[in-house]
Amino acid sequence: MKDKLYKMMDWPGIEAIVYGEENSPQNLLGRHSTATNTLYQCFFPDAKEVKLCIESEGRDAKEYVMEMADEEGFYACALLGKVKDDYSYIVTDINGVKKTVKDPYFYSAMVKIEDSKKFNSGSETEAYKYMGAHVETIDGVKGVAFRVWAPNAMRVSVVGDFNAWNGKANPMMKDEESGIFTLFIPGLAAGCEYKYEIKGHGGLVFMKLDPYSYECNDGKSVVPSNIRYKWEDKEYFDARSGAKLDASPVNIYETEIGRVVDKKGELSKSAITALIDYLKKMGYNYLKLTMKGDDSYMLPAGVSASNVKNLVNALHKENIGILYTWNPSFFTVTNEGMSKFDGTYLYGHMDMRKRYNNAFGGFYYNYGREEVLSYLYSAANYWMKEFHMDGFHIEGLSSMLYLDYAKYDGEWIANIYGGHENLEAIEFIKELNLKLHKAYPYVIMTTREESAFPKVTSSNKDGGLGFDFVYNNGFTEDYLSFIKGDRAFEELHMLTDHFAYEYSENYISALSKETVLAANDYDYVRVKNGARFVDYVPVPDENKGTVVRATLAFFMAHPGKKLMYCGQDDENLSLALGQLYNTEPALYSLDNSPYGIEWINNLDKGDGVLSFIRKSEKAEDMIIVVCNFSCKDINNHKLGVMRPGKYKQIFNSEDKKFGGKAATAVKPKETVEEFYEGRYHTITIKIPAMSVSYYKYVE
User: Fold this and answer.
1) Which of 205, 222, 239 is the last residue before a domain boundary?
2) Is 139 in the same domain as 164?
3) Which residue from 51, 270, 274, 466 has the highest number of Cβ atoms inside 10 Å of its Cβ?
4) CA dist 333 to 280, 336, 338, Å?
């Protein structure tokens, strides 16, 4: 090496580059001016030769052979004067293959100061727009800008096929104030697979997926396309903008992405069409979809982003909403995920007593760290804005709310007031719901809460968490206990006790996946293979259809919005129930009001019968619901009613057309003037064993 060039070299800096310990490579690599020269330095591991190509406007390009400063692949070249022309490198590898590359360290992909301040303050809701990998054009050159938050890392590099997955080849530039590493690599395009190689201060080197991945392929993050999707759901959202959710029918079908894909495992057009046809046929107006679990909540794991958008677009065109099942309570403990992301517990807690989630085996997010909040707020906003979701079902809520959830003494730390509530998580949930409802007035936020935490569905201004709906766990659990028992008459109160708190929250009457798991004694394999809630009910197999039909009819008539997990419905019966639910306002319009139900008989008279009236704001809409939970047919049951005239049976779960034994055509029942059950008229009806019937006033 020439003496003049030798003296320009920062040898300690070169050593840091070569050994992969430099977090400010831009200070050495790239083009730099000295007093009399322009110095070019680059690092191409295992390169056989590197030439500097100066591209002067109006003149032929000039090439200069660069000198090897270090045999690991560090090259340098000095030109006299202040050279400002464009340049590139012509790299010849050990196999003699040549390629021309632009210098990544000539370009700046730094996050804007105003954005980084919002990110570091925990108020950012659109970090996905600049964090992660994005196809961008900088100074007229197209490539991919990478940005990742890893403040405690010694060095972060982008790796992929483009650099033979060599972590020393493309070290990223660190902004010390924000802790964000950035690098723009010219020439890369959408579809490129990549990861981050991170070197911690302890010297350990490891690979990580991008927390802001937008797509993932075979355990690698994928650079997304920036081609905007052509949505066709404006009419759908325009119609929703003025809808009153409480007074509207909400009938949700719950499933996982793996059950939606076709035989080839793809979310094809035919698979989407088949799903929508089923939802429309059965009267469902919302789909609750669970994606494949992954550390990165930005990506639609298990299927491509474009296919998910195709699904949402097709659903909205048929006036069907979609709720994304999201678990912001914890992230999984995987080597390539968020666990010890930059060599420290960056997204979690330093103290194991606050970090470890005993219930799920993962690590709790640190809701007291501002950048983690920005990540979670942005993830939610990303799904809403980029995928046009209608809302979220938040999983793991109970584990978030309590510091001692599923923990023994000594395994948790009390809050600053000595209590067990996770104050930071509670504040995060409140703020999440507040932000989403403000940005998207139509959003639906649902959850499942197991500990009777107060005011889950109350607004923030009333001191609540701000959800729209919560599962009615007490009702569902009591019902399952009832039908799994011997259904003794003295236990009939199990189906009415929950009315002591029925209107304390806005409830969903749910036969959810959790319900099915509980009914099957948490046999996950059994449920994955298609088990139903009724499979462990101790009745002969030939009678299980009767139990299923009565259960579905009772749940549909019960106050609260509806949710059904896939495989639990009965096609013929559910089709009829879905049509009734969507056309009879009494079944949904006053779900959250005590005026929406009036008991005729909620006492145990020794016959196993419960009866009540579902109402809307119009008297003529009322529906009488009669339930026989005994194992015997009742041929002459007297029912008290207020209005004289005729009452027609509009539904019977044991109708022959549904597989039961009751007659399909039943003549309207005419009232008799008789004071009974606090009412001035009666009708006499037949009620099959283990059945639910609906009656409507006709004149």
Assistant:
1) 222
2) yes
3) 466
4) 39, 9, 7
